[in-house]
Structures are given as C-alpha cells and as structure tokens.
Amino acid sequence: MRQKKGLFIVFVLSVTGFFLLVAFESFSPVDSITGKDIYRLNCAACHGTDRSGYSDFYPSLINIQESLSKEEVLKQINNGKGQMPPFPHITPEEKNSLIAFLFEEKNEIVESSIENLGERIFLSNCSSCHRATVNDPKPLNVRMMEPAPLAGATKRFTKEEIFKILETGVCYMPSFSHFTLDEREELYSFIKSLEGKGEPKRPTMGEMCPMDENEKKVNKNIQKFL
Ligand code: HEC
Ligand code: HEC
C-alpha cells in the first residue's frame, strides 16, 4: 500500500513537472534574435512583413538574389539610397544574418537580446519622418511639413493612444502592427526618456491630413495643449 502511494506521488509530480515545463516554454519571452527578426524590426515597415513591398515606391525584396549580390545589398543597407535611410546602428553580425534571411539561407540566431531596443526601433522606423527632439537635424523624408518631434509625445498622449497610433498609423505614417507588445513597450520607454529634452511647442496631429473618427478622438485629448 505504502509503495503504491509513493508511486502515485512520483507520478503526480512528474505530470505536474511536465506541464510546468510546457507552460514555461510557451510563455517565456523570445530569447533569440534571428535575421528574420532583424528584418522585421528594421525593414518591414517599408518593404512589408512578407517582403513583397508596397506599390512601385517600396520595392519587393522577394528573390532579391536574382537581381543583387550580397555585397550590393550590404552597400544599400550601409549607405541607404533615395528615400531609404542608411542603417549605421545595425551591427555587422546582425547584417550578416539579415542578408542570409533575405537570400533564403539559414538565418542564424545572432544574439539573445538587443541592447537599447527602443532607441534602435526609433532610429530604423521613426527617425526618417520624426526628429527625437527639436534640436536634431531635419529628417530625411520631410520636405514642407514635418510631423512633431517625438519628445513630449508621452505627455500629449496616453500610452494607449500611442499604442493605437502605432497599430493603425495616421495620415501617411504607416502601421507598426508587426511590433510585439514587448517591442512597443521598449519604444514607448525610449520616447518617454525624451521628455523635457527639446519638446515641440505644439503637436501637429491632424494638421497634415484630414482625420477619421478614430484619430479625432485621439486629437481631442491634445486640444488642451494647443
Ligand atoms: C523608410 C523606408 C525604408 C526602409 C525602412 C528600408 N528600405 Fe529598403 N528601400 C526603400 C526604398 C524607397 C527603396 C528604393 C530606393 C531607390 O532605388 O531609390 C529601397 C530599396 C531597397 C533595396 C534595393 C531593391 C532593388 O530591387 O533594387 C534593398 C536590397 C533594400 N531596400 C533593403 C532594405 C533592407 C535590408 C532594409 C532594412 C535594414 C530596408 N531596405 C529598409 C525604403 C526603405
Ligand atoms: C512616413 C513618415 C512617418 C513615419 C515613418 C512615422 N511617422 Fe509618426 N507621424 C507621421 C505623420 C504624418 C503624423 C501625423 C502628423 C499630423 O497629423 O500633422 C505622425 C504622428 C505621430 C504621432 C503624434 C505626434 C504629435 O505629437 O502630434 C506620434 C506619437 C507618432 N507619429 C509616433 C511615431 C513612431 C513611434 C514612429 C516609429 C515607430 C513613427 N511615428 C513613424 C509620419 C510618420
């Protein structure tokens, strides 16, 4: 009898252990960054999450190996071209893995996590249109009218509103729905860290494009700052 009870306890413990292990595996955050992630974090906003591009303006990168060599792609990433900015903040290892991904090769895990992730996301995805603070030079993609520098956006909008702007995009700002929740949090923390460092005198939401109902709701919240 006693032996049976012991066996039963061992059985229960191993079953629980098994489920705990499964739960841990599925809930633990992503701890390996591959070339595919480097693509998503730096290139997908313009070239599409599936690399098929948008219109003629943002070319498709599918089968890029048929038209460009790895060296040419590397050069394009380093120097930028036309409306594509250069990416000096992507490390050489990350570029190798990114290019392997683009060339449909096995893309290696480059690292377990990215340092200064929020700032890196800003540099690759936002800085071509938004300055961080009013003291920075004018962004590449801005000619006549410029959307507000992001310093102080965390005062002008609630976190939910900023997440919503990222989800849907506004005016000609694209959607960044391909960022994970963790990545949005990191980006939010970076924008928050800009508070007080050269905030614009007035926000610009709605100045450039007529807003739909959703955007109007967000905009109501910032009227008090105008
Ligand atoms: C801000 C938008 C933007 C981002 C972000 C961006 N690109 Fe581009 N990319 C462009 C545009 C626009 C072109 C066309 C440039 C031209 O020829 O004038 C282009 C062209 C290219 C080309 C050449 C395609 C061809 O057929 O000639 C490659 C390769 C490329 N991008 C790779 C990348 C990679 C890799 C990343 C991420 C590290 C990236 N791009 C991020 C806008 C972007
Ligand atoms: C292609 C250009 C472009 C890119 C890239 C872009 N935005 Fe925007 N953003 C805009 C435009 C345009 C507006 C609306 C401005 C207006 O209505 O006057 C805007 C508005 C905003 C606002 C409200 C600003 C305010 O205070 O009025 C926030 C916050 C914002 N963007 C965050 C971001 C973040 C974060 C990123 C990067 C993940 C980003 N944007 C990338 C063009 C861009």
What features would you describe in this structure?
The chain folds into two domains: 30-114, Cytochrome Bc1 Complex, Chain D, domain 2 (Orthogonal Bundle), CATH 1.10.760; 116-226, Cytochrome c-like domain (Cytochrome Bc1 Complex, Chain D, domain 2, Orthogonal Bundle), CATH 1.10.760. Helix content is 45%, strand content 2%. It is built from ten helices and two strands. It has helices at residues 2-27, 35-42, 44-47, 70-79, 92-102, 117-125, 153-156, 159-168, 181-192, 213-220; strands at residues 33-34, 109-111. A two-stranded antiparallel sheet has the order 1-2. The N and C termini lie far apart (79 Å). Mean pLDDT is 84; it is low at 24-29 and 222-226. One heme C binds next to helix 3 and helix 4.
Give a short overview.
By secondary structure, the chain is mainly α. The chain has helices at residues 2-27, 35-42, 44-47, 70-79, 92-102, 117-125, 153-156, 159-168, 181-192, 213-220, and strands at 33-34, 109-111. It has 2 domains: 30-114, Cytochrome c-like domain (Cytochrome Bc1 Complex, Chain D, domain 2), CATH 1.10.760.10; 116-226, Orthogonal Bundle (Cytochrome Bc1 Complex, Chain D, domain 2).
Return the domain count: 2
Shape: globular
Structural class: mainly alpha
Tell how many strands the DSSP assignment holds. Answer: 2
What is the third-level CATH name, the topology of the largest domain? Cytochrome Bc1 Complex, Chain D, domain 2
Topology as a string of helices (H) and strands (E): HEHHHHEHHHHH
Number of helices: 10
Largest sheet strand order: 1-2
What would CATH call the class of the largest domain? Answer: Mainly Alpha
Bound molecules: heme C
> Strand portion, in percent?
under 5%
Instruction: Note the main sheet.
Output: 2 strands, antiparallel
C-alpha termini separation: 79 Å
Going by CATH, what is the homologous superfamily of the largest domain?
Answer: Cytochrome c-like domain
Radius of gyration: 22 Å
- The CATH architecture name of the largest domain reads Orthogonal Bundle
* Uncertain regions spanning at least 5 consecutive residues: 24-29, 222-226
Helix content: 40-55%
> What is the residue-mean pLDDT, rounded to a whole number?
84
What oligomeric state is this? single chain
